[in-house]
Amino acid sequence: MTRLSGITPSGPVHVGNYLGAIRRWAREGDPADLYFVSDLHAMTTPYHPQKLRGRTRELLAILIAAGIEPDTVFVQSDLLPQLGPLTWVLECACAFGEAARMTQFKEKSADRSHEGTPVRVGLFTYPVLMAADILLQGADEVPVGDDQAQHVELARVLARRFNGTYGEAFVVPRAVTPPAAARVRDLADATRKMDKSASDSAGVLFALDEPDLLRRKVKRAVTDSLARLEYRPDEQPGLANLLEILGACLDKSPREVVAGFSSYGEVKDAVAEAVIEELRPIRERTLELLADPTELDRIRAVGGARATGRGSHRLTTVLRLAGVA
Ligand code: AMP
Ligand code: TRP
Fold first, then answer.
1. Ligand 1 pocket mutation pick from 17, 184, 241 by most atoms within 8 angstroms of CB
2. Helix, coil or strand: residue 107
3. In DSSP terms, which residues pair with 7 in a beta bridge?
4. pLDDT of 79 strictly over 60
5. What is the number of other CB atoms lying within 10 angstroms of the CB of residue 269?
6. Ligand 1: which atom is nearest the Cα of residue 194?
7. Confidence of residue 146 (pLDDT cuts 50, 70, 90)
8. Can you give the pTM of this predicted structure?
9. Does domain 185-288 have CATH number 1.10.240.10?
10. Known catalytic residues?
11. Which of 27, 68, 253, 296 has the fewest CB atoms in 10 Å of its CB?
12. Residue ranges of the alpha helices (H) in 66-102?
């Protein structure tokens, strides 16, 4: 069984990405799995090439530092020679209306922050590239957040359609979504999920933030004036978010961790220390890897070669069945 998932370097990694995705991949990962940095996705909206290159390396280093088996990690663009042709084949299997229905496209193309800049065709076709990521590797399971489940569904549809029309080439994948409680929210506004591309990062705990900065951000977290130490997500969303983060760091439920505190200040101190301790080894290892570009390049090349090797046979079959090789 192969699991595959990707994470986009659209901004620095935050504690939500770590607790909700990366730590899970590191803990549950199997040597047959694949985890990658989807740098091509970051090109679908305006971006800076140098920043993208840097963030891609940083994210690759974080995945490895978090303990994901280095052989199973790769960078999406290292597979461009295979993903390019496969995306084209799948675009020719995808109806315009199917792509137009994607909620993320509708939301992002309407995003006011990009007003004035044209919506890129790549933003529209990206879900087909994502299908190529998944289908090239013959992934069985794709762990993603709810927002990506629709894209995995499209990959299923395209795999079935190709198999039915031209011949069996693809494994039909399925999405696996983590429990809803894994949604970490912004510390400054608990109605928003913690987001790496948020314009204001005061409430976003980045994986590479210095301990002092993490402490300050947690101290400033918005709570309420009820002075009730209970886990009540609807009535006290800010406090509930802190308890969820603390619980995730300690592998306990938010209800378990709330017992024993007598003030919000104490909760914040405990959250800050738990997050700092959780992130410390990852931050240190990431900085070491980034300081040794030769080693990082070597690891990147090994992962890229493994993923390329896995995909090449399937791509050959697909092109032959499609009548173009
Ligand atoms: P994104 O930052 O949207 O590229 O998400 C990358 C991965 O991190 C996905 O698997 C998401 O489910 C996970 N993720 C993103 N934001 C959060 C959050 N606030 N809480 C928990 N998981 C998150
Ligand atoms: N689009 C995904 C995101 O933004 C990242 C991604 C790209 C992905 N390709 C993938 C996830 C393939 C799972 C499988 O989060």
1. 17
2. helix
3. 37
4. yes
5. 15
6. 19
7. confident
8. 0.95
9. yes
10. 108, 193, 196
11. 27
12. 80-91, 96-100
C-alpha dist (Å) from residue 312 to 266, 305, 315: 55, 10, 5
| Sign of the Cα pseudo-torsion (119, 124, 125, 130, in order) | positive
Q: Is 90 exceeded by the pLDDT of residue 150?
A: yes
> How far is it, in rounded angstroms, from Cα 217 to Cα 219?
5
Per DSSP, the three-state class of 248 is helix
pLDDT in tens, 20-34: 999 999 999 899 999
Which ligand is in closest contact with the Cα of 146? 1
Mean pLDDT of 234-248: 96
Q: Tell me how far apart the alpha carbons of residues 286 and 293 are, in angstroms, rounded to a whole number.
A: 11
Q: What is the pLDDT of residues 183-222, one digit of tens each?
A: 899 999 999 999 988 888 999 999 999 999 999 999 999 9
- So where are the chain's domains? 4-181+293-322, 185-288
Q: Which of 17, 24, 34, 38 to mutate to test the pocket of ligand 2 (most atoms within 8 A of CB)?
A: 38
What pLDDT, on a 0 to 100 scale, did the predictor assign at position 180? Answer: 54
From the number of C-beta atoms within 10 Å of its C-beta (0-12, 13-18, 19+), residue 321 rates as middle
Token pair recorded at residue 23: 């730590």
The tokens for 62 are: 């974080």
The SS3 call for residue 123 is helix
Lining residues, ligand 1, CB within 6 Å? 7-8, 16-17, 20-21, 144-145, 182-184, 193-194, 196
- Separation CA 39–CA 29 (nearest Å): 21
Fold of the domain spanning 4-181+293-322: Rossmann fold (3.40.50)
pLDDT at position 112: 64
